[in-house]
Amino acid sequence: MIASLNGVTTGGWIDYARRIEQAGAAALELNLYYLPTDPNLSGAELEEAYLRLVRDVRARVKIPLAVKLSPFFTAIPQIAKRLAEAGVNGLALFNRFYQPDFDLDKLEVTPLHRLSSSEDIRLPLRWIAILYGRVKVDLALTSGIHTGRDLVKAVLAGANVGMTTSALIENGVAQARSILKEAEAWMVEHEYDSVRQMRGSMSQKSVADPAAFERAHYMKSLQSYDDFMPR
User: Fold this and answer.
1) Which long-range contacts (CB under 8 A, 24 or more apart) does 158-166 make?
2) Could you give phi then psi for residue 72, rounded to 5 degrees?
3) Domains delineated in the chain
4) Residue 80: how many CB atoms within 10 A of its CB?
5) Which of 114, 63, 122 is nearest to 93 (CA)?
6) Hey, which residues does 27 pair with through a beta bridge?
7) For 120-179, how does the pLDDT look when each residue is reduced to its tens digit (9 = 90+)?
């Protein structure tokens, strides 16, 4: 059983990390997120606060420690590397945040709750494929795993773990069994003997066109799309 703990600053609450370990948790996930609204707070200062928190928790527990990150960092590989150096054993990519909406009838700010879909896998898929083999941590892909094929993609990118919640909310706990059966069928069809053999085989360092993971510019995307257009 993996426990999850939320927080952004050091303080008395981090003693709960030790209590969680004593209660029998096999590992601990730190769910880190702080919405910086102060224009005087720099990104570097916020990252240092995260790292200080991780070091404090790491000093209190011996069980494996994971951090669940948001995608809103200027340099994801660099913060991933620093977290690994601070003692983190795994990274979960990425946190999904509920963005507010406006109720135009009541003129109120309202939360908008939306379950993920398979389309949401693309962002964590890219970054796991980039981080695989570069940062010495286990990688968990969270957001967008609804089918066995989604799980296969996560492993091919380099994920050690595939996490799903929305699929279970929509279809019940039995969906987990369906996801595993579909992934196993794909492995048999493509003659993979083990998950270890699959892992990272489509990461950035393993594919013929590693620059494909770096294409984020509009024009490069259009040029890539043009290859599929009929002549």
Assistant:
1) 158/128, 158/129, 158/131, 158/132, 158/133, 158/199, 158/200, 158/203, 159/128, 159/199, 160/90, 160/199, 161/90, 161/92, 163/92, 165/116, 166/115, 166/116, 166/117
2) -95, 60
3) 2-226 (3.20.20.70)
4) 24
5) 122
6) 2
7) 999 999 999 999 999 999 999 999 999 999 999 999 999 999 999 999 999 999 999 999
Distance CA 124, CA 95 (A): 10
Whether residue 216 is predicted with pLDDT greater than 90 in this model: the reply is: no
Q: Which one, of 156, 148, 138, lies nearest residue 195 by Cα?
A: 156
Residue 7 has pLDDT above 90, yes or no: no
- Which DSSP helix (H) or strand (E) runs through 144? none
- What are phi and psi for residue 68, nearest 5 degrees? -95, 120
Could you read off the pLDDT of 28-74 as tens digits, one per residue? Answer: 999 987 888 899 999 999 999 999 999 999 999 999 999 999 999 99
- In total, the chain counts a number of residues equal to 231
Task: Output the pTM of the full model.
Answer: 0.88
